[in-house]
Amino acid sequence: MSTFDIAVLTTGDELLNGELADTNTGTIAAILTRHGYRLRCSLSAPDQEKEIEAALRYLTQHVQAVIVTGGLGPTGDDLTARAAARALGQSLAINDEALEMVRAWFRNRNRQMEPTNERQALLPIKAIPLPNSLGTAPGFRLQQGDCQLFFLPGVPSEMKAMFEQSVLPALQALNPGRSALQQRTFKLFGLPESRIDAMIPYRELPAGVKVAFALDYPLVVVKLRVAGDDAGRQLDRAEALLQKVLGEYIMTRNEETPEGNVGRLLTAAGLTLSLAESCTGGLLASMLTSQPGASAFLERAAVTYANSAKLDWLRVPLSLLQQYGAVSEQCARAMAIGLRQASDTDLALAITGIAGPDGGTPERPVGTVFLALASPDGVHVKGYRFNGGRQKVQRMSAYMALEWLRRFALRQQQEPLKG
Amino acid sequence: MSTFDIAVLTTGDELLNGELADTNTGTIAAILTRHGYRLRCSLSAPDQEKEIEAALRYLTQHVQAVIVTGGLGPTGDDLTARAAARALGQSLAINDEALEMVRAWFRNRNRQMEPTNERQALLPIKAIPLPNSLGTAPGFRLQQGDCQLFFLPGVPSEMKAMFEQSVLPALQALNPGRSALQQRTFKLFGLPESRIDAMIPYRELPAGVKVAFALDYPLVVVKLRVAGDDAGRQLDRAEALLQKVLGEYIMTRNEETPEGNVGRLLTAAGLTLSLAESCTGGLLASMLTSQPGASAFLERAAVTYANSAKLDWLRVPLSLLQQYGAVSEQCARAMAIGLRQASDTDLALAITGIAGPDGGTPERPVGTVFLALASPDGVHVKGYRFNGGRQKVQRMSAYMALEWLRRFALRQQQEPLKG
């Protein structure tokens, strides 16, 4: 198989003045790797026609495919099409197909098209437009000698969708790629990376399997990777080993999110849920309801910031609040019990704590969080002390609550509810 | 002043297979920009001697300074010093000063130095070592013609410390940098980028001021930038123009988030707030409570997914739900009124809608959302039809609600509450 080198060129002043970190290169790199292609290099250029032109001239001489992101918008700093026309010695003209794509985008949304949007159809004369289902800017494709060039918008969601819809199939038609790297991803909760690393039985793993780590706070992401015809079987063996030593810490695998996983488990178990959030302020409810189908299990949630809301909606006795305070094991328990009565759900989960930066005391410092889960089996309560700033404490609390729900739902698969 | 172009070369397979997103370029870019330098381009190369050598050869011919990160570790895939030696036609030798740096690092920590660590002192013969206070790998510096090359480790914390300690002062000695770019940022809501672009009075802007756009859905970010001694005054004039034509759409400026801005405005106005979220599932509450100080204005929030919660907590009449349905102007109004009574707050905001993907009907398709705001002035209700998938509809709904709250709080500054 002949060499098939691919380069990425990202454009935008914001990438070179530190305002925005480039994520498009990583996205493209991951998809290419998964499909057996190699990204040979990536380059960033500012919003200057000359610079983009120079980068394109250089890359077209050195690789077989160039993926360019950014600079296709309607405004004056969107210069990619002009730079491409110069680099390839083509003139610019309104591309009828691209213009119709732009018009259709506005038409379908009953929105007025601005004259500046017509600029988005001004492309090098030999460009083939690429549809953009998520935004106004069509992409386009060009050829220069043996090099294929693909131009995509810089908005990450649009870029990714168009790369998968248009660019990847085109690359596959040009070159089948080497044997693809296969990968399985596991999201673990409750152990630090160094501990997980020490627990992985590296010597027992099948020879070609590589292990990589990433952090998605508070989750540790473990990736198992291998190439070759036997990849599937090797990954099965590696996954079985991982499950054996770390199974209980694995929240989800591959594409599933922890909140999606919990929703699926609760729905499958036929469990209904209500939430009372104090320090997390609706974060857990928001995570669970970001997933389609949340209404199958979630009945309601309360963000009870003020004590009056705890009294009123959760029926927490005033005397209890006065005696123990809102951030206490007793209050968490009362919130969960009161919520379960109010909502008539199988499960009622309560979170109360101090996310900070203010509100900590020597006995109950910032990061003190109590969780309570009321179920037909009774009420389970536990206190934690989480590290980090406000948003880290909120995030950790929400993930801990997800973990409680996950484990409860899994237990139900073995021994269904008594109640 | 002559041109002084700087390039970054990051090395590492992990950057080109999607395992790790490069943050070093952004870090360097931000520091350079702050000090009035321009990063002309950035390049990523894999852990292959030939590729790094080719990149170095290219860059040394095109810019005046190259900052290279990665590949200085003790393992076999750390090839940067060898590649640099080849690119610059120098031999490799153990550098005594560098070796002493490596030895001292281990000595100071009472740790045993591995023989492989000696490799970290094997540098091109003319290299000047750069100290690394946070790790074992010394950096180094080389000159090729008019180009200065700086080699730093890839670990972000080590890279940043060494860049600030050694590289920035060296750059400043070579070239004082232009006067630093100053910038102001504005987040706009309610108009598309193309419309905003058409409304900006480019001809009236002070000569040096550049306008750049970015998207942070559903916000459009507008940046005004200018360099030079007169930057502050020019930005003042440009900002005044922007305020004149687009002022009402500007949600926040510079570092402030829209949710932080709304919290600040409500607190300053002494307004208390409660929320009832249906389709947004707690997203708005979660955004507002991610900011410190939310308890000063937020009394409570309800995520009323099931109708029973609307009946119970929000006192929405069952007959109303049966007659008009939960996604209706009538229901939104009743939610806001009932919530305001239950919570006794100045403002009660309700959101009900269909985020999808399921639940749409021909009359009320996915994206139909009603907002209601109950205040001492009465109840304001409005229906919307938002585009996009579930999370986009949720996000758009939450930002629209923020915008309602922002405008209400601003009006209070002019004419305080009647009630």
Name some characteristics of this structure.
homodimer; 419 residues; alpha/beta; Molybdenum Cofactor Biosythetic Enzyme, Chain A; Alpha-Beta Plaits; Maf protein; five-stranded mixed sheet; 17 strands; 40% helix
The tally of structural domains of chain A comes to: 3
- Average per-residue pLDDT of chain A, rounded, comes to 92
Number of helices of chain A: 14
- The rough form of chain A would be described as globular
Please give the number of β-strands of chain A. Answer: 17
Biggest interface, which chains?
A-B, 89 and 85 residues
Describe this entry's structure for a reader.
Two copies of one chain form a homodimer. Chain A has three domains: 169 residues, MoaB/Mog-like domain (Molybdenum Cofactor Biosythetic Enzyme, Chain A, 3-Layer(aba) Sandwich); 72 residues, Alpha-Beta Plaits (2-Layer Sandwich); 157 residues, Alpha-Beta Complex (Maf protein). Helices cover 40% and strands 24% of the residues of chain A. Chain A contains 14 helices and 17 strands. Chain A has a six-stranded mixed beta sheet, with helices on both faces. A five-stranded mixed beta sheet of chain A has the order 14-13-15-16-17, sandwiched between helices. In chain A, strand 13, helix 10 and strand 14 form a beta-alpha-beta unit. In chain A, helix 9 packs parallel to helix 14. Chain A is globular and about 80 Å long. The N and C termini of chain A lie far apart (64 Å). At the A-B interface, helix 1, helix 2, strand 2, helix 3 and helix 10 of A face helix 2, strand 2, helix 3, helix 8 and strand 10 of B. Strand 2 of chain A pairs antiparallel with strand 2 of chain B, so a sheet runs across the interface.
